Amino acid sequence: MIISDIIQTAASEGKEKHVPTITIDKGYKEGSDIVLVVVGHEMEHPNTEAHHISWIELYGVTKDTNQTLHLGRAAWAPVYSNPNVRFQINGIEKFKAFHALAYCNIHGLWANSLEL
Ligand SMILES: [Fe+2]
User: Fold this and answer.
1) How far does residue 27's CA lie from ligand 1's centre (Å)?
2) What is the pLDDT of residues 22-41, one digit of tens each?
3) Among 27, 28, 66, 83, which is disulfide-ready with 32 (CB 3.0 to 4.6 Å)?
4) CATH number assigned to the domain comprising residue 66
């Protein structure tokens, strides 16, 4: 078994939505743009002590060296905070793709990618 065997994508979705959506917004500061990652963008995921999204991580792949960089991680307490995070990225034009991982405490790891 390899780690990709336990990472699910949109093809595995049931009625609850786990796949993180990735969107890019222009930052207010020159050269610092925003990568927004959200679970439950279209259909809310449960947010209770028993069932919730615990964390989201963002990775970027650089254009010039094809290096995968861990750009950040956000973690939440259930009930009082939502799995919705803004990563402010410097030099976004240096990346060719972003990958997000989200972890549900019941349903495991979920991934999505955005090619630029
Ligand atoms: Fe779940």
Assistant:
1) 31
2) 999 988 888 899 999 999 98
3) 27
4) 2.60.40.730
- pLDDT 10s digits, 62-102: 999 999 999 999 999 999 999 999 999 999 999 999 999 99
Number of domains in the chain: 1
Q: Any catalytic annotation for residue 41?
A: no
β-sheet bridge partners, residue 24: 35
* Domain residue limits at 95: 3-115
**pTM for the predicted model, two decimal places:** 0.93
CA angle 38, 41, 45 (to 5 degrees): 85
**Is 51 assigned a catalytic role?**
yes
Q: Is 15 one of the catalytic residues?
A: no
Catalytic option among 13, 16, 41, 94: 16
- Give CB contacts under 8 A, 24+ apart, made by 65-72: 68/99, 71/35, 71/98
